[in-house]
Amino acid sequence: MINKAFLCINALVLLIFVGCNLEPIYKTKFTEDLLCSIKVVKPQSHLNLYEVGFQNLLEMKLCMNSKPNKSLLLTWNIIKTNTGLITAKNAAESRYEVVLTAKFHLTNIDDNKTIYSGEIYSKAAHNVLEDELFSTITAERNAENMAAKNLVDNLFDKVYLFMIQNKNESS
């Protein structure tokens, strides 16, 4: 009984410290060069914090180091909508849904030709409390940030899969 417990603990410690020695595919040199060739356009307005957060997260996810020669340009536009979901009987509390819809275009900088475009969306919900303005603003900003982070993940996956498929077809 003690030997089994000892073996299980040792195996667990070994897994924690050694791991599986596998690296994510998107961190290989090949895919890193592909993703680092993309320049992300700045947000249209610095007043919308979710747009600034979206752009910063996307740049970090695509490429951590700055490559001077970018061959592709990623333009995007986010539209935000708020929809009321539920209102309490006394109308002191409501639930709203923030929907961020992003249209994007991946363009070749040399010939200004769009090679990939699409539209993605993300949703997040938050409470609106009639008497608590600070809590409501904080909840809405948090919902916007969560939706923007989800947009970044969705856009990264789409662009990554397109780049890999395009590279495999051209090879």
Shape: flat
Largest sheet: 4 strands, mixed
| Average pLDDT for all residues | 82
Q: Which band does the percent of strand residues land in?
A: 25-35%
**Which class best fits the helix and strand makeup?**
alpha+beta
Work out the helix count. 4
Q: Give the helix proportion (percent range).
A: 40-55%
Please give the order of strands in the largest beta sheet. Answer: 1-2-3-4
Number of DSSP E strands: 4
The Rg value, from CA coordinates, equals 22 Å
pLDDT < 50 runs, ≥5 residues: none
Structural features, described:
The protein is of the alpha+beta class. Helices cover 45% and strands 30% of the residues. The protein has 4 helices and 4 strands. The protein has helices spanning 2-18, 29-36, 49-62, 133-170, and strands at residues 38-40, 72-87, 93-108, 113-129. It has a 4-stranded mixed sheet. Helix 3 (49-62) runs parallel beside helix 4. The longest helix has 38 residues, at 133-170. The chain starts with a helix and ends with a helix. 18% of the residues are buried.
